[in-house]
Design a protein that fits this description.
- The protein is α+β, with helices and mostly antiparallel strands.
- Among the domains are: about 40-140, no CATH class; about 285-393, Beta-lactamase (3-Layer(aba) Sandwich).
- It is built from 13 helices and 15 strands.
- It has helices at about 5-15, 105, 140-150, 170, 200-210, 210-225, 230-235, 255-265, 290-300, 305-310, 325, 375-380, 380-390, and strands at about 20, 25-30, 65-70, 75-80, 90-95, 110, 115-120, 120-125, 130-135, 155, 160-165, 315, 335-345, 345-355, 360-370.
- The protein has a 5-stranded mixed sheet. Strands 12-13-14-15 form a 4-stranded antiparallel sheet, with helices on both faces. Strands 1-10 form a two-stranded parallel sheet.
C-alpha cells in the first residue's frame, strides 16, 4: 500500500465518524509468515529500495523518498515522503563539490534508533534531486507512517500502532489472546479499501522492476490457493477483500512456491524453474529459455493476455526497454516489441513478444550468463540485435 492510498484509507475511517481512537491501532500482518530477509545479502546495500523485504502489511515499499532543494552554495533543504512519526529527519544538509550521479547511494544514510543520519554531504551539482532509502524494519516503518498520516488528518490516538503477527483466526479462542485476537469478530469491517487490481499492479511491477511488489504477488498466490472458489469468485466480483469472508490462511514462501510448481506441472510441459523467492534479484533461482518461451506462449492464448502484454515495456518507448532506441536507433523493433529485461552482475536478459513487419507475432527469449560482470553488460547489444532481427520478419 502506497502512502497516498494509506492516507485515503484513513480518511475513509475518519469520514465514518472516527476522529479519536482511545487505545491502539492494531496491524494484522499475519498473512505472510517468515518472509523477512537479510537486506544486505544480495549486494551488501541494505538500504537500497530493491532490497526491501515483503510483509503482510507493507507500506510504501518500506521506503522513504528524500527531495533536496539547494539553499546556497553550502547547504540544501531536505523534505521527506512519507513522514515518520516520532522520528527525527534532518531538514538541512551541507553540500560538497562533486557530481550528482551517485548521490542517492553516496550519502551513507544510517537509520539510528530515533533519527536518520546522513554521513556524507550532498553533491552541490544535484540542484533539485530525489532519491530513495529503504527503512530496515517493515513493521516499524508501517507503524510510524500510519501514526503520522492519522495525525496529519487532524485525528488523535491515545495508544500506539502495534503489529499482530500471529494470524487472528489461529489465536482468537486461546486464553493468551491479545490484540486482535482478544476482540469479538465483527460481521463486516467499518471501512473496506480494496487493493488496486492485478492488472494495475503488474504494470508497475514490469515497468519499474519493483522487486518487493513481485514478492508480495508471489506470496499472495499461496493465500488465494487456499480459498475455496465460491468465496474467491464472490470477493472478485464485488471487489471485496478476502478479509470480509474471514481471515485468509497465512502463507509462506514454501507454500507459495509449491503452488506455483503445481500450476506449472499441470499446465506446462517443461520442468518448473527453481525458485527460492519471488524477487528478480535472486542469485540461486534458475530458469531456462525453454521455460520462459513456453510460459509466454501459454500466456499469449490466455483470456487475460491483453492485460499482461500491456504491463510490459515497449521497445524504445517505455519500461525497462526504453533505452533500446538509444542503443539501436534504426531498430525495427522500436514500438513493435513488448519486453521485460533482467540484469544481475553476471546476467543480462530480455523476454517477451515481437510483432514482425510481416504481421506475425513472435515469442522472444534471450538469456546471457557470464562469469565476468563486464561481459554481461557488453552482451546487451546481442539482445538488441535479437529484437531487431525478429521484428524484420
Amino acid at each position: 500500500m502506497t502512502h497516498e492510498r494509506l492516507k485515503q484509507l484513513l480518511y475513509k475511517v475518519q469520514s465514518s465518524g472516527i476522529r479519536h481512537i482511545d487505545g491502539d491501532i492494531i496491524i494484522d500482518s499475519g498473512v505472510f509468515k517468515n518472509v523477512s530477509k537479510d537486506p544486505a545479502a544480495f549486494d551488501n546495500s541494505p538500504l537500497r529500495p530493491y532490497n526491501a523485504s515483503p510483509d503482510g502489511f507493507l507500506v510504501n515499499f518500506s521506503t522513504i523518498g528524500i527531495k533536496s532543494y539547494p539553499l546556497n552554495d553550502d547547504q540544501a533543504n531536505l523534505t521527506y515522503t512519507p513522514k515518520l512519526a516520532n522520528y527525527a529527519l534532518p531538514s538541512i544538509i551541507n553540500t560538497r563539490s562533486a557530481s550528482c550521479g551517485q548521490a542517492r547511494y553516496s550519502l551513507a544514510p544510517e537509520w539510528q534508533a530515533k533519527q536518520l543520519v546522513l554521513n556524507t554531504q550532498l553533491p552541490n551539482s544535484c540542484q533539485e534531486h530525489s532519491f530513495y532509502v529503504a527503512y530496515p524494519d517493515a513493521k516499524d516503518f508501517a507503524a510510524r507512517v500510519i501514526t503520522a498520516k492519522w495525525q496529519e488528518l487532524g485525528n488523535t490516538l491515545s495508544g500506539n500502532v502495534i503489529t499482530q503477527e500471529a494470524p487472528y483466526i489461529t489465536t482468537k479462542n486461546t486464553k493468551s489472546a491479545h490484540g486482535l485476537a482478544a476482540l469479538p469478530i465483527s460481521p463486516l469491517p467499518i471501512v473496506s479499501y480494496p487493493s488496486l487490481n492485478l492488472t494495475q499492479q503488474i504494470y508497475d511491477i514490469n515497468h519499474f522492476s519493483n522487486n518487493v511488489m513481485t514478492e508480495q504477488v508471489a506470496l499472495s498466490i499461496g493465500v488465494y490457493d487456499k480459498v475455496d472458489n465460491k468465496t474467491l469468485d464472490k470477493a472478485i466480483s464485488n471487489s471485496h477483500s478476502l478479509y470480509q469472508f474471514g481471515t485468509p490462511t497465512a502463507t509462506s514462501y514454501p507454500v507459495a512456491l509449491q503452488t506455483i510448481n503445481q500450476w506449472w506441472q499441470t499446465n506446462l510441459s517443461t520442468p518448473p524453474p527453481h525458485l527460492t523467492n519471488g524477487s528478480g534479484l535472486c542469485r540461486d533461482c534458475t530458469i531456462t529459455a525453454a521455460n520462459l518461451s513456453e510460459l509466454l506462449t501459454y500466456a499469449y492464448s490466455h483470456p487475460s493476455f491483453n492485460a499482461y502484454v500491456n504491463s510490459l515495456g515497449i521497445a524504445g518507448v517505455s519500461g525497462t526497454i526504453t533505452a533500446h532506441s538509444e542503443r539501436l536507433p534504426e531498430s525495427a523493433a522500436i514500438g513493435r516489441a513488448w519486453i521485460k529485461t533482467g540484469t544481475l552482475n553476471n546476467v543480462t536478459s530480455m523476454a517477451g513478444y515481437v510483432k514482425g513487419l510481416s504481421g506475425q507475432d513472435y515469442v522472444v527469449v534471450g538469456l546471457i550468463n557470464s562469469e565476468q560482470a563486464h561481459n554481461a553488460y557488453t552482451a546487451r547489444p546481442v539482445l538488441d540485435a535479437m529484437l531487431d532481427w525478429t521484428a524484420q520478419h
